[in-house]
Amino acid sequence: MPRVKVARKSTAIDMTAMCDVAFLLLTFFILSAKPKSQDPVKAEIPAATSISTIPETDFATILIGSGKVFFGVEGDDVRKKTLSLMAEKYKMSFTPDEANAFSGLQSFGVPISQLHQLLAMSSKDRASLVQPGIPVDTTATNELFDWVHSARLANKFLHDKDLKIGIKGDSQEEYPTVDKVISTLQKQRVDRFNLITSLKTAK
Amino acid sequence: MAELDTSGGGKHKGGKVRTKKKNTRVDLTAMVDLAFLLITFFILTTTLSKPKAMELVMPDKSDTTKQLAVPESRTMTLLLGSNDKLEWFVGEPGKSVPSVIGYSDLRKTLVEQDKLIKDSHGGQGMIVIVSPSDKSTYKNVVTVMDELNITNIDQRAIVKILPVDIDLLKRDKLY
Predict the structure, then answer these.
(1) Window 81-100 of B, Cβ < 8 Å to A
(2) Could you tell me the CATH number of the domain that includes residue B98?
(3) Tens digit of each residue's pLDDT (9 = 90 or more) over A86-100
(4) Measured between CA atoms, how close is A9 to chain B, in angstroms?
(5) What is the mean pLDDT of residues A58-84?
(6) Is B132 a member of any domain?
(7) Domain segments of chain A as ranges
(8) Which domain does B145 fall in, by range?
């Protein structure tokens, strides 16, 4: 009697397709992840239960920390246009290199007279520099007013959308600084803004 | 690793010695493991740290024609002082006795007062005036606005603190 031999099947699984999918997903996640922006000042944002998300475009952030005010706007093109509008207003001129350096700045906090020095620095030096903050006071024409105004104009011009403004403040920041920023915004009839918060977790 | 050698034992028949054909397959299991590990890492790190936004609407300062008179009896004033404490009173400043509470008791107070005012004013809701003093922090303001959102009190405004209110805070050593 001839024995029936059961053919031994290979237990190897072809991993190629799985590997392809895994790396595709990995690439997607790496590329879609936004690098965490390095804020020029440490700001621990307060917690709240609100769950609306921050828009990715047409958005400007005013960062408040240790009594200083910083400003940043989303989008390289908007930043460039904002700078050119500011240059016009303050009768300054910026070289194309400086404009490019500015369009890569997430957030900055120097008076406009010191902007040339800031833009000339390498990004490493800039990170270690303690920036003095954008001048804000209670008068109608302070530099923050002009920055916000120019950014709004630039965004309207380039994207034809209203710029939304977010305030990102440090939890321990005393209220007067926040009040100065809010009244600066109200002077140009910006009465709606977003307070950036982290999600409060249940205690 | 994931492959078992299923070929029979190598027996040479005949004289010719052939060079062994090597298997060109590479074991991808470890690579897939690594890729999925990284994916998990990226998923977990990206979605958890997204900040949220809370909308804040301030009253239009330039438009003075639309200002409504507010009945004092329906108004609750919150004075934010130092040391994470606040004072509240209903009615006109100076005429009613303020109480000092911490932020953890704020929600309870808001709900109670809202109910009292609704009962005595035929369903009309409470109006809340938030006056942050110079000694309060940004976190305090956000907490108050958040509590007002939670308790659904829509009629509220952030108003500059009056000297009378500062005196009250000073008296209670919150300024």
Answers:
(1) none
(2) 3.30.420.270
(3) 998 888 888 998 898
(4) 8
(5) 89
(6) yes
(7) 47-199
(8) 72-171
